[in-house]
Structure formats: structure tokens, C-alpha cells
Give the backbone structure.
Amino acid sequence: MKERETRQLATVYEVVRAAQDHPTADEVHARVRRRLPRISLGTVYRNLQKLAAQQRVRVVRLPHRAARFDGMLGEHDHFLCERCGAVIDLMRSAATPPDCAALDRAGFVVHAHALTFYGVCAACAGTPRVRRPRDRHV
Amino acid sequence: MKERETRQLATVYEVVRAAQDHPTADEVHARVRRRLPRISLGTVYRNLQKLAAQQRVRVVRLPHRAARFDGMLGEHDHFLCERCGAVIDLMRSAATPPDCAALDRAGFVVHAHALTFYGVCAACAGTPRVRRPRDRHV
DNA sequence: CTTTCTGCAAACTCTTTGCACTCGT
DNA sequence: ACGAGTGCAAAGAGTTTGCAGAAAG
């Protein structure tokens, strides 16, 4: 059960720490390979998971692909319950709209933003005030 | 070039509009199938894309899987440039931390949140104040 | 009739996993 | 020597695509 400091783990860690961009697992693999040509992609995945579990690297949760669809057209955010997996709509007013002024000032054009909270929903947290545990609005 | 209103498209639309949860493409397929048993998953995907392009349904951009890794351990948000694809770190102070008070009051436990802005970065927007177009901090 | 759309299946991307072998400790 | 870690390749999810035939206009 004791963890080992292998060359592979150390190199993956160094590569991610040194990276200024936000490499995908594949990109990490390519860079590590320059030093350890025989390392496999599977090992990179395993080591990235291990490092993330140890909080030694950070996982960037970027909304990448469209995975879910919504008939509700208005702007709103989401709460993701880590216990029951529910996706709960949050009216935009439930959270302060993020301040884009600093971005605007820096010359960035903001078209949209996505805000997702993670945690435990009221139903799972034991507050018996919700009837349906899945997919209600707040 | 003219779009057709097929039974398949109409049914996918109705199902997504009627859904109170946030169905995945697969779930949409299952529901549509109850009415059109021969519809294929590929058609559902194509129609979801079409409806999203027409803004008739909303795509929920949920951070699904860990796709990218970061050696920067502090809390921060991201800006995704739609032009050059850059992922730019934003210090948390650049945007007002979202207000969780309403969620707390409703009995929700918030562990974390992910905030991503979409738009055009300063370099792509033509502001010549950035040297490297990819992956700088703000 | 023409052109778009569909069903099907194959292909593709990203990630995980089983297995025998390797290598830290 | 023991067992966690590795390379490889195969298997999984989730999504896209090529094609022949169906159907909307």
C-alpha cells in the first residue's frame, strides 16, 4: 500500500508543474515522452489521477463538450450534487453575476460564461424541504 | 439549403423542451424512441446540434470529465478564447466570487465552483498588448 | 423530382482496465 | 523478494460520419 516515487510519476509531475498552458493528458504524454520515450498514455493517465488525488496538480474542469441539453432557454447556472448526481438549475440571480469589468479593461471580449457549483443538494444534505431530489429549480 | 421539419426533429425538440431534468443525448434518444421507435442515436445527435445552432434548445456546458491539467494549485477561473483556443488563467479576484449565500440558505452545501468565461482574448481582439497569444495569466 | 434527412454501422476521441512483466523499496 | 507500478493492447463511453435509401417540399 505504500506509494512509490517512480521516474514516470516524477516526470509527469515535473511536466505539469512546468507547463504554462493547460495541457491535455495527451499533451502531457507527448512532453513526458521526450524524456521517457517508452512511457505509455495509460501510465500518464494513472499518474495524473494520482497527482490530482494528492492535490499535487490541479484538474481544470472545463466545460468541453456539450453533454446535456436543456429546453430552458434563459441564462442560468447549475448546481451539481456530488451525492445524487442531480443537475439543478439556478436562476442567474441566485449568484452574483461575475464581474467582467476587469476582463473588459484588459481588452477581452466576453460573450458568455458558465458557472457550476459542486456540493451536496438540500435533499441529500438531509434538509427535508424538497420533495423531488432530482432536477428541481432553485 | 432549406431546412426541413421532419418528424424526428420535431420530436427531439418537444422532448427536450418538455424535459425538466437535463437529459444527455442518450436519454433524449430513449425518450424520443418511445414515440419514434426507429429513430437512431445519430439522428438525435444531429438534431440536437441543429436545434442548438438555431438556439431552440440550450446546451448545458457542464464540466464533465477532467480534460486538462494545471500545475497552478491556487483557486482560479478560466477564460476560453473562441478564436485561438487559448485557455487563460484568471485570478479569482478578477471576477467577483459568486454568492453562495442563497444556496446555503436553501440547505445546499457548496464545496467548490467552476467559472469559465467565453469570448475573444485581448490578443485576438486586436489589442496589441500581449506578446504570446496562448495561455498567459490575467 | 430534387435535395435534405434518416438509419445503420463503422470510425473516432478520450479514458479506463486486465494482464504479465518490471523495478522501487 | 514482495507488491506497487508499468507497457501494451483491448475495451469502454460518448460522439461523429459515410453511405444508400426514405421522405419532405
Confidence is low (pLDDT under 50) at residues 129-138 of chain A. Residues 1-4, 6, 8-9, 38-43, 46-47, 65, 67 of chain A lie near DNA strand D (CB under 10 Å from a C1'). Chain A touches chain B through 71 residues (CB under 8 Å).
